[in-house]
Input
Amino acid sequence: MARRALLTGGNGFIGSHILAQLLDHGCTVCCAVRTQEKGDKILRDFATQQSQITITIVPDIVAPGAYDTAVQGTPAFDAVYHTASPFTYANAGSNLQFLEPAIKGTLNLLKAVKDNAPSVKRVIWTGSCASVIDYDNLVADPPRIYTEADWNPVTWEEAVNGDPSKAYRGSKLFAEREEAGNQRFVVCARQFDFQDVCDILRSHHPELSERTPLGKPGTRSLPPGAYSIDNSKVKKFLGVEFRSLEETVLDAARCMLDIERNEKQALST
Ligand SMILES: NC(=O)c1ccc[n+]([C@@H]2O[C@H](COP(=O)([O-])OP(=O)(O)OC[C@H]3O[C@@H](n4cnc5c(N)ncnc54)[C@H](OP(=O)(O)O)[C@@H]3O)[C@@H](O)[C@H]2O)c1
Output
């Protein structure tokens, strides 16, 4: 675990979880975000660990040299975590707005580290199964089992001119292909389908039965030939132990119910 890290996208979903883990392990973290308001929100969200956090503003990750100053921390960083990348389709005006920050932002960061941050021993970049899986052919005979050796077949042409999902898949593919010289890990616990999710919810939260589809309890809804992922590499080399599907679904449900309860309370006061 790093002792002093630079984290991009620390205000995002994945980034905030990485930040929480780093802080809990005693690491000090500099969060690179687009605006001071986003940095202030991080400081509020992690109020009890504020002393371990600093904020640096990188307004445009596409601009040449965008990260050159941010990577030069004092004391120097020993690791960089890069999660900043377009993920929400709603925020993208065009496919290029998806592709450019993903590709140029990543290249800018890697170049900045190479040229200006010799203390950095490791750069961790969040890829996606989107750069691995062929989402246009999810079912096959025999079923596909994807590994770190696989790349989705999206072309640059499709990424620029196709629907937004092609832009996202392209953004992850081309950003990774440009620079993936080292280790690639696909982090995926298991195959599951939404019948499993409904069955778990209905058995633990009968009060939600009106809001949980019934489907055909106890059956599989995935078609024969549906793809799966071989996760042996991440388990072997990083020692990852995955949570059960039941724990994951129930945790997510608990969080959503908390949010709903808080929103209702806020509206009634
Ligand atoms: N969530 C998943 O299930 C999942 C699965 C696989 C991979 N990933 C990968 O994990 C990373 C983070 O995803 P997430 O789920 O945490 O998404 P998220 O909550 O939408 O967070 C995205 C982060 O990237 C930043 N960002 C987006 N567009 C940017 C741009 N043009 N310039 C600078 N910063 C930009 C956002 O900052 P602003 O607030 O300033 O926009 C935010 O900090 C992405 O690389 C994504 O591909 C996510």
Strands lie at 4-8, 28-33, 53-57, 79-82, 122-125, 145-146, 228-229. Residues 9, 11-15, 34, 38, 61, 83-88, 101, 126, 128, 172 surround NAP (CB under 6 Å). The mean pLDDT is 94.
